[in-house]
Amino acid sequence: MTDKINMTQATVLHFAEIKPTITTRQPDPEMRIEGAPERETQSRFLAPAFGLSSGTWSAGVGAYRIAMPDSKHEFFHILTGKVAISCDETGAVKHFGPGDTGIIQPGFKGIFRIVEDASKLYVVTDRNMEAD
Question: What is the pTM of this model?
């Protein structure tokens, strides 16, 4: 496993070779709608100078409110399970399962529902990420 990545060297990285930083938490109580799904995030790549982070995420069944800051995009690809994301503004619900890919745009507000235990690959861009 690679502990430290040299961001000044042009290279190709293999996710499996990057030692992840693992965090486990539940949605904040005020954001919970159904249950308190435990979420594990394995952060595998962080490039603050470019506002970029990526890794994998998994969670148990439940639902909670999400609010994407105006500075962030999230690209995700569902690996396992099923999720449904509903938009507060339009009421539209999008369903995602294994192999499905989606993008959560800046300013999005809605409900993230984990219908079946799920995992995803994610890439987040954040214009306001602070560089080291």
Answer: 0.87
Is residue 27 within 8 Å of residue 39, measured between CB atoms? yes
Q: Closest Cα to residue 120, out of 85, 75, 87?
A: 75
Single-letter code of the amino acid located at 105: Q
81, 121 Cβ separation under 8 angstroms: no
Give the C-alpha separation, 83 to 117, whole Å. Answer: 9
Query: Which sign, positive or negative, has the C-alpha torsion 101, 106, 110, 113?
Result: positive
Give CA–CA dist 89/44, Å, rounded. 33
* pLDDT tens for each residue of 69-117: 999 999 999 999 999 999 999 999 999 999 999 999 999 999 999 999 9
Q: What are phi and psi of 129, to 5 degrees?
A: -65, 135
Cα–Cα distance measured from residue 60 to residue 30, given in angstroms and rounded to the nearest whole number: 18
Q: What single letter denotes the amino acid at residue 111?
A: I
Which runs of consecutive H residues, i.e. helices, occur in the chain? Answer: none
Residue whose C-alpha is closest to residue 56's, from 85, 16, 90, 106: 16
